[in-house]
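Slide 14.
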Amino acid sequence: MDNKPLQMGVGNSAFSNKKLPIIKKPQSLDSPQITLSEIPHLGKLNIRCAGDDRQQISKLTGYNLALQTNQLSSKAGRHAICLGPDEYLLLAEQGSETRLEKMLNSDKIINKIAVTNVSDALCALSLSGLKVRELLSKGCAIDLHPDSFGRNKSVQCDLALANVIIACIEANETDEFLCICRTSFAEYVLDWMIDAGYEFGIIARSYA
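Slide 15: predicted structure.
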């Protein structure tokens, strides 16, 4: 499975009124154990399709659509999250979501699928570090232990009071997670994470 980093670009930030970086940690810690950053503009397409059309969509878009719900799949740096038996969230480099949307809407399978561009409706956060699982576990009831929630696992759940999608990009000593929430809840989620991550030490910064 090819898990190249998500491709970023300069885009509108959901935290434009926040002065970053924000660092919160006890004095006893030398450095933060969690790094949080917004992916300023990540293309996002919601796809609804029947199982028979999955392979054709994968071939057209270059994505590898997983068969299993709550699974993240990657191909050539492109990522797709299976939200349900007939629903996917495609994550694309900046600008490419428009081309993908037009491609799918112009193909003969258009009568069998539904394509919705949700790029502006959703905010994506990248989290990495030694204590990411502990941080997320404070706000959701999902078992995030590595034995239960390893690499390429995803889930839709409530984090504190916000509905989010959580996906594990890498599972090692410094885990890497993706958290996707509604843009209208972005500042709430950011503030909650900063408060909840204080004991571990957390830095919120612009994506580098």
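Speaker note: The mean pLDDT is 88.
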